[in-house]
Amino acid sequence: IFPANSGNKEITWMMLEAGAETDVVNSVGRTAAQMAAFVGQHDCVTVINNFFPRERLDYYTKPQGLDKEPKLPVKLAGPLHKIITTTNMHPVKIVLLVKENPLLAEVEALQKCYRVLDLICEKCMKQKDMNEVLAMKMHYISCIFQKCITFLKEREDKLDGLIKSLLKGRDKDGFPVYQEKLIRESIRKFPYCEATLLQQLVRSIAPVEI
Fold it and tell me: Which InterPro entries does the record associate with it (predicted)?
């Protein structure tokens, strides 16, 4: 808790990588993220909330149960983990991370990745210590991957076309309508309607017209 309270992002990240648990509470029943938020260290809160151990992803690189093949090829684990742990959730940033890695920027690779993200999302919602924030993040990235697949299959300009669509503003005020629609669509498709976070997002967005 002390590194998070002090605002030291680097040490907070190092402790997480060393195995520090994010859901352990102190004497007053607060986690490190909750205490950091209480004292205004929001950068550390972001680091904690976006941390996802590589071992949890590596689990999917090994065949499980009756599977003959792993759900995620080993070569995709590193690039996917980089995207999962990024704190910049702008859709253009995520598409750029896909585009810059030849291993990811293929239909088959993205299909495997988004299916794994959906499994992680499900696990986040069904585990004892439910993590709605991480579940929503996994679902959101999965939706962007699926949109990448559509452009790779149907458009000659491929991911460049998707980036242009996300950045293009409407004529009267420059507002990026396509980007807004993509984000709203990902929220609408979140499969766990009972999630508190989903209900909060819907209440915030529903009254606001594009």
Answer: Ankyrin-MYND_dom_contain_2 (IPR052452), Ankyrin_rpt-contain_sf (IPR036770)
CATH 1.10.287 is the classification of domain 1-50: no
CA dist., res. 140 & res. 89, Å (int) = 9
Helix 74-84, helix 91-99: angle, nearest 10: 150
Stated as kind and residue range, the H or E segment containing 47 is helix 42-49
DSSP letter at 51 equals -
**Encoded tokens for 206:** 């529903």
Q: For the segment 174-184, what is each residue's pLDDT rounded down to a tens digit? A: 999 999 999 99
- From residue 1, alpha-carbon distances to 6, 26, 108, 210 in Å are 9, 8, 41, 40
Tokens of 134: 């991480």
| C-beta of residue 104 within 8 angstroms of C-beta of residue 77 | no
In this predicted structure, what is the pLDDT of residue 47? 76
* Per-domain residue ranges of the chain: 1-50, 52-204
DSSP structural state of residue 146: H
pTM of this structure = 0.84
For every residue of 162-176, DSSP letters joined together read HHHHHHPPPTTT---
Contact 100, 106 (CB under 8 A): no
Give the pLDDT confidence of 124-162 residue by residue, as tens digits: 999 877 789 899 999 999 999 999 999 999 999 999 999
Cα atoms in the Cβ-side hemisphere of radius 13 Å centred on 121: 21
* Other Cβ atoms within 10 Å of 143 Cβ, number: 23
